[in-house]
What we know:
two-stranded parallel ribbon, single chain, 36% strand, Bactericidal permeability-increasing protein, domain 1, binds 2-acetamido-2-deoxy-beta-D-glucopyranose, 7-stranded antiparallel beta sheet, 4 helices, 247 residues, alpha+beta
Amino acid sequence: MVLGRVQLAFCVVLFQTVLYCDGQFERSNYEMSPLPFPTCRADNLECLRRSLRTFFFLMDSGKFGMKPIDPAIINSVALALPEQQMSILLRRVNVTGARWTKLTERRFNLKSGKSGVVFHSDLHVTGQISLEVAGKEGPHTAFITMDIHGAETNITYPWTIQRGIDNEDYIVIGPERIAVRNMRIPTYFLQPNVPEAYIIDETLQAKQSILDHFSNEITAALMHSIIDNFRLFSTKVPIKHYYKYYE
Ligand SMILES: *[C@@H]1O[C@H](CO)[C@@H](O)[C@H](O)[C@H]1NC(C)=O
Ligand SMILES: *[C@@H]1O[C@H](CO)[C@@H](O)[C@H](O)[C@H]1NC(C)=O
C-alpha cells in the first residue's frame, strides 16, 4: 500500500536523524503561532496543494526573508545558434503568474532516496528581444509579450531531517535537478509594428525551438528561486508546522 510505504520512508529518515543528529544548527526563534498552514500528510496531494498556496502567499509577502517571485525580473536570457550564425537575447524579462503554480505530483523514494515534485505553471512574460545575425546589419530589436501555457516542471532533490538546537526537526534540501517540458508552444506578439519586428517574427516562426528554449530557461530560473525560498523557509519553520508525520 502506498500510504504504508510513505510512512516507512519517514520512519527510516527519522531513525537516521536520531543517529546522526548533531544539533549544531543555529536558528532564530521566530514567532510561529499564527502560521496559517494546514499540516499535511506527505502523501495527501489535496492538502499539499492548499499548503503550497499558503507557502506562495508567505513567499510573496517576503516572510522569513524569502524573495517574492511574482512578478520576477530576469536580467537576460541568451540563445546562440551557431549554425545559423545567429544570437537572440531577451532582456529585462518580467514574468508574472508564478504564484498560481500548481502541484501535480509528489514523489518519494526516487533514485538514491531523492524526493520530487511536478509543478504546472502558466506564465506571462514581457521583455525586450533582440536578434543579431553575423554579417548582417543589426541587431533588430522589439518588445515581446509571451504566454507560456502549461509548463511542466519536474524537480528532484535529496533531503534529510535535522534536529535544531530548539529540539525541533527541520528539513534540509540538497541541490535540486530541474527538467522543464512545455505542453504547448508559447504564444507571443511583437511590438511595435515595424520591419524590425517582422524580421524577428519570421525567425521565431521558422524556428519554434527558440521560444521553447526561452520558455524553459525562464521557467527553470523561477523554479530555482522557488526552491531557494523553500530552503530558507524550511530552515526556519519546524516540519511539524506543515507536515503531519503520523495519523
Ligand atoms: C512587471 O509586470 C507587472 C505586471 O504587468 C507590473 O505590474 C510590474 O510593474 C512590472 N515590473 C517591472 C519592474 O517592470
Ligand atoms: C521526473 O524526473 C525523475 C528523475 O529524473 C524521473 O524518474 C521521472 O520519470 C520524471 N517525471 C516526469 C513526470 O517527467
